[in-house]
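tool_call: predict_structure(chain=1)
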Amino acid sequence: MKKTIVVLLTVAVLACTCIGCGNAAAPEGADASGASSEDSSVVNLMDLYSIEDPGDVTYDQRTALYMPVLESDEHYADGARHFFSVLYGKEGKGVYMYNVEIFEEAEQATAYREQAGAGKTDGVAFITESDENFFIEMESFIPDLQTMIDNLMESGMMELD
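tool_result:
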């Protein structure tokens, strides 16, 4: 029961991250699974969109997750087709997160941003960002970054290579 509540809260929080948070502090770098600091600072999201690591965030882990938006999802009617989360951690704690939703058309992404009242758009992409304050606020439900990743994967997301 507790695990179900945590998963539901995690999904709800991700849906609500449209309000995002601010920024955090000098990249050490890592690959999608958290490897070395010599790897690229660009995360390719299945050739649908790419993001650059936040330049002012120190991290030792980077994990990119993906989930298609299914026709049965009410967000599908808004034009959303793909959902990505890129999470950054330092010493096991979350320090930054991008959520990227890919829409069929740029106008749909813009309309969704206007409805959400936060975030930014770049063509067909709607992007929200959350800093370490988001993770601090969620710590009583999600004590560390790995728990958040596990919960997101249990909700249907899969890790990108």
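agent: Confidence is low (pLDDT under 50) at residues 1-38. Proceeding to next step.
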